[in-house]
């Protein structure tokens, strides 16, 4: 579908929906074509492009990014001042979040940024532990974040130690990952322990 000059909002929405669906369906081939196009450039072309960009930035001056940012923000304010824009943007955001895969992708990206491993790798790690906490040996129970194992890692080295239940993970954090403090707590509890 190509853009028509006098299309109605409904026709435009239909055209955009078609384009999104086609792109989603053919995402692999779209990415492959874009990568092939990038890879096809010769080293001379890449060097020429880099030189052009460097020259362009030098010509713009050191504050070009600030100026461009101010220009874009001014345009954005002007656009948002139009009546109905906020409603339209809110509707778009709500619709975007409802698209298939968006929530899962966002959750996976967030998980990878926080823990350094993908959700699939974390699931495999949990399976290797038998689905139980590495410290207390109990399966997680409860709601929300209490209902799953959490990735435990050393904050100094970033090395992943294993999967812990919410309580054990929180306890280690409250002890500031200090083995001496944990030993002192163990000695304190040992005379009155009932297990």
Look at the structure and name the CATH superfamily of one domain.
His-Me finger endonucleases
The oligomerization state is single chain
What is the number of strand segments?
Answer: 2
**Weakly predicted, low-confidence segments:** none
Strand coverage percent: under 5%
Write down the overall mean pLDDT.
86
Number of distinct helices? 9
What form results from the Cα inertia axes?
elongated
The appropriate CATH architecture of one domain is: 3-Layer(aba) Sandwich
Here the CATH topology of one domain equals His-Me finger endonuclease fold
- Give the biggest beta sheet: 2 strands, antiparallel
What can you see in these coordinates?
- By secondary structure, this protein is mainly α.
- It has a domain at about 105-190: His-Me finger endonuclease fold, CATH 3.40.1800.
- Helix content is about 65%, strand content about 5%.
- The chain has helices spanning about 10-25, 25-40, 45-60, 65-80, 85-100, 100-115, 120-130, 165-175, 180-190; strands spanning about 150-155, 160-165.
- A two-stranded antiparallel sheet has the order 1-2.
- A hairpin with a 6-residue loop joins β1 and β2 (about 160-165).
- The longest helix has 18 residues, at about 45-60.
- It is elongated.
- It starts with 8 loop residues before the first helix and ends in a 6-residue tail after the last helix.
- The model has no long low-confidence stretch (mean pLDDT about 85).
């Amino acid at each position: 579908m190509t853009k028509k000059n006098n299309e109605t909002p409904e026709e435009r929405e239909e055209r955009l929906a078609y384009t999104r669906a086609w792109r989603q369906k053919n995402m692999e081939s779209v990415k492959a074509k874009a990568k092939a196009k990038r890879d096809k450039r010769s080293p001379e072309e890449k060097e020429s492009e880099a030189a052009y960009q460097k020259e362009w930035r030098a010509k713009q001056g050191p504050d070009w990014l600030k100026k461009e940012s101010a220009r874009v923000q001014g345009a954005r304010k002007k656009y948002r001042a139009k009546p109905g824009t906020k409603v339209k943007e809110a509707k778009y955001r709500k619709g975007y979040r409802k698209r298939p895969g968006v929530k899962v992708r966002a959750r996976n990206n967030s998980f990878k940024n926080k823990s350094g491993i993908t959700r699939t790798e974390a699931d495999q790690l949990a399976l290797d532990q038998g689905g139980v906490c590495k410290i207390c040996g109990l399966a997680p129970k409860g709601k929300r974040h209490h209902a799953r194992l959490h990735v435990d890692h050393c904050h100094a080295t970033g090395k992943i130690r294993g999967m812990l239940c919410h309580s054990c993970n929180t306890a280690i954090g409250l002890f500031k990952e200090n083995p001496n403090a944990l030993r002192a707590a163990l000695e304190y509890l040992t005379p009155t322990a009932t297990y």
